[in-house]
Structure formats: structure tokens, C-alpha cells
Amino acid sequence: MASSSSSSSSNSKWRYDVLLSFRGKDTSHTFTDFLYGALDRGNINTFRDDEKLPRGEEISPELLKAIEGSRFAITVFSKNYANSKSCLDELVKIMECEAEKGQKVFPIFYHVEPTEVRNQSGTYGEAFKKLRDKCRGGGGEEDRGVEGCLEQSRSIERISTTGWIFEYKFIEHIIGEIGILIPKSVHVGENIVGSDENLKQAKLLIDAKSDEVSMVGIYGIGGIGKTTIAKVIYNDMLDQIKHHNFLKNVREGSKDDHGLLQLQEKLLRDILMDKTMKLHNVNEGIKMIKSKCYLVKVLIVLDDVDCPRKLKFLADSPQWFGGGSIIIVTTRNKLTGIIEGCRFHRKIELKVLDERCLISISDGFVRMHDSLQEMGWAIVREKYPENPGEWSRLWEYEDIKSVLTKNMGSKNIEGMILNWTQVVTIQLHAEAFKKMNQLRFLEVGPNMVELSQDFELPSHELRYLDLGGYNLASMPSNSHVDNLVVLRLQGNYLRHL
Q1: Catalytic residue from among 58, 90, 177, 374
Q2: How crowded is residue 228: how many other Cβ atoms within 10 Å of its Cβ?
Q3: How far apart are CA 146 and CA 152, in angstroms?
Q4: Could you tell me which of 447, 435, 437, 444 has the C-alpha nearest to residue 475?
Q5: Tens of pLDDT along the chain (497 residues)?
Q6: Exposure b/e, 347-380, CB count within 10 A at least 16 = b
Q7: CA torsion, ordered 64, 69, 75, 80, to nearest 10 deg
Q8: Is 98 exposed, middle or buried, given 0-12, 13-18 or 19+ CB atoms closer than 10 A?
Q9: Is 90 designated active site?
Q10: Which DSSP symbol is given to 213?
């Protein structure tokens, strides 16, 4: 049976990250088994053919497809590798894929000197001579193909057990060499127009050659490209930093300690390339991150962090990480609380909202972030969800229609926008506004209303009145306009107030 690790290959061109070619008799239950386990724990999608092929039988179609669909091939040259015709057939196919498909080959010389393989000396010389004599009288085209493959190994980067005292250290070295070459890039998307200038500014904050730990924050309102910028920087630096992790949607994924625990596990699994990493609680997670990463150069992106507490569990200090590490945090609010801190003095509330990226102020206009608008709507409806006449603001057609036609208005109503997409008209009567003595904001869109002859605005609190959508010759009688700050009458033929 063939076996492979459970993770999926990171590029659709390749079915597997790694293919293992080995002599089962030599290493199937020892070195190759340990290597396969380490690759699997490192979340490296690996194919291993476990079938015992009878002598002289061709390699299976499944194995051929696996060879063609693997980004890397690890060939474990052990003492009896060349004794197996199927192993040498695999080697021929692997070298064909290296030449034709750009597959990268990693020869591992397991208790065999590389010169023995390349020069066909020692045990390899003896084994190859026996094989040549058995194959079609010797010296056939197939044999020359194998010879050519062994000759090609001269130019391939090789890894040898020579000089390694402990096999587990040797395997860790192999995992590191393979892991850094497997792209773990994050999807950016095609439309990144408008991010170029911000991207340049963000890159200026990062010195990839520094031995200091860089912690960079990217903040702004939702939808302006913070995550896109972080993804581009992350992808650009993957080939420079071996240990990396992109934690997306931290805000959504860390609503409780269980969510934070999962984020800590994800961070450690990626950084340490060990998918078996398990934590019992978030405090253990803090200790593990500090103890395992303090000598490791890492690249970490924490995307959409909404409060400083989250950082305390994931990346609280530069001292947690090795020299040259880069930590990038994207946030909407400069890592300060949003709701908890929103008890403002009126003179500074707009400034604070602007600093927290909940509004933007430019050219005298204030633009509200969608999250703040939705929060405001929810607050307005919260106390009287089924009675819009008691709300402080009205903005939707059905609610306004119900309040005005049924005379449900109350002193709670402070603002109303009569501007909707439906092609309908509402007639405004004085009675409908009689109780709205705290009305401060009224906007009327084109062809939205008809005014009755008795219409009046009883509120002395009116500050903003926009009648640009209604043609008036004069203001309604008994309308209190002394405190108006803004009066918009675009398209009107108003002769007197």
C-alpha cells in the first residue's frame, strides 16, 4: 500500500510536496520511517510507497503518478539501494522529472559515501555489476539510463549522514532544508490597486538585515488594504526567514480563551513545523512561545487584532523571539479598546474616533466606518426593537412610514432621513410631528414627501434641515428655525423664511 501525509500540497501543480524513494529492505522500518514521521509532523505532504514489489516487476502506475506529481524527491541511497531494479527504475523516472518538470531532487547518502554512488564503487559497484548482468544480457539502453542518472548526481546538492552523530538531528536538518523551500505563501488576490504607496511606507519600517526584532503595526479602517499589505510583505520575505506563521482573523478567532489557545497552537505548529503540538491552557501557550521561540528568527503576521490583551498571549514582547525576527500586526484601532473607551468629552470625541479609525475626516466631511454605523443602528433599536416611534433615529422607509402615518412619533426622535430607493411618497401632517419636540436633524430626498397645508415643525431644537428634495416657496408656518446651523434648499425657489 502507498501512504501519504494528511495535509494537502500548497500548489495545485503538485499533488505532493515530497516523494520518498528508498530501499525497503534497508530503511523501511528505521531511518525512512522516522523521516516520514518527521515530514508528516512538519505538515509536509509526503508520498511513501510501501508496496513490496516482486523481483523484476515494473513499478506501479500509482507510484509513477506520484513521482510526476511531487515537488521534491528524496532518494535515500542505502547500501542495497542499487540491488533493487525497481529502485533504479524510480531513480530514472525521478531524474526525468527533474529535467522536464523542474522537480528538485535531494539525494540522502545513508551510511554510504557519495563517491560510491557516483563512481559505482564499493557496494554500489558490485550491485550494479550484478544488475547489469541480469538485465537483457547487460549493457542495454535501460542500464545506460541508470548510469546517466548516477552520473547526474554529481551536480545535485546532496545530504549525507557523514559527520552526524545522532540520526534525529540529521532528520531535523533535512526537514529544515525541505521546509524552507516549500512555499507557504498566502493568497493575495489580483486587485491590489491603491495599496502601492502604503506598501512602500510599511516596507520602510522593516529592516530585514537587522539583528533587532522588528514589531510593525499597520492600522486603519476596515477594507483599506491592511491585510493585503501584510500578505504581500509576508510572501516577499518567506525565502529569507525559515520559521514563519500567518495568523488570520485574530479578532474572530480569539473571542474566548479556547479560541486564543487554538491560535497559540497554530502559531507554534507553523513555527516549529510540528503539527502534533498540543497545549492545555493559554498560560502554557505563553510559556511555550517564549521558551521555543526566543532563539529563533521568525516571521509572524497577526491579522486583525482588536485589543492589546490578544497580543499578551501571542507576541507580547520582542524578547520572546530571536534576533532578526519580524512581527507584523494589523488592527483597526491602534490596539486600544473600541467600545470600552468610547466615553468621550464632546470636544475630543471626533478626534478620538478618527485616531481609532472609526471615522475619517477630510475636506470638512466626516465619513463613518461601516462597523460604527452598524453598531449605532443596533444601539438605536436595542431598547424598543418593535416600536420605531421610540427610537432616536429613523432611516428606513417602513419604519418612517409606520411612525408618520400612525402618528407614533415621540420626544425620543432626534433625527430622520426621508430618502429611500422606493418610488413612493408620504404626506406629512402637523400631527405626525407634534410630539417630536427634540428633533434636531431632518433630511428630505427628491419626491419623497408631500406637505399638508397645516404642516409645521414644532421642534425648537432643529439644527440641520435639508429640503433639497422638495420645492418650497416659503418655509412652513410656525417652523422654529432660529437655532438652525445648516439649511439646505438646493433646487428650491424659496422667497422668504
Answers
A1: 90
A2: 19
A3: 10
A4: 444
A5: 455 554 444 445 788 889 998 888 888 888 888 999 888 887 788 998 765 444 445 677 888 889 999 988 998 888 888 878 788 888 888 888 888 887 888 888 888 887 777 777 777 777 767 766 665 554 455 555 555 555 555 444 555 556 666 788 888 888 877 776 776 778 886 655 445 667 777 787 787 788 888 888 887 767 677 888 889 889 888 878 888 899 998 988 888 889 999 999 999 988 887 777 899 999 999 999 999 999 999 999 999 988 778 888 999 888 999 999 999 988 876 674 433 333 333 334 555 566 666 677 666 666 777 777 777 888 888 888 889 999 989 988 889 888 988 888 888 998 888 877 776 777 777 788 888 888 888 888 777 777 776 777 767 788 888 876 565 555 666 666 677 777 776 655 555 55
A6: eeeeebbeebbbbeeeeeeeeebeebeeeeeeeb
A7: -10
A8: middle
A9: yes
A10: P
The answer to whether residues 322 and 297 touch, using CB atoms and an 8 Å cutoff, is yes
Query: Distance between CA atoms of 286 and 311, rounded to whole angstroms?
Result: 10
Place of cell 523484476: 56
Buried b (16+ CB within 10 A) or exposed e, 88-97: bbbbebbbeb
HEC letters along 462-479: CCEEECCCCCCCECCCCC
Q: What kind and span of H or E run contains 359? A: strand 359-362
Pairwise CA distance, residues 192 & 422, whole Å: 35
175 SS3 class: helix
- State how far the Cα of 260 lies from the Cα of 279, in Å rounded to an integer: 11
Alpha-helical regions (H) of 331-475: 349-355, 370-382, 397-405, 430-433
DSSP letter assigned to residue 99: H
User: Residue 107 has which C-alpha cell?
Assistant: 539525494
d(CA 300, CA 306): 17
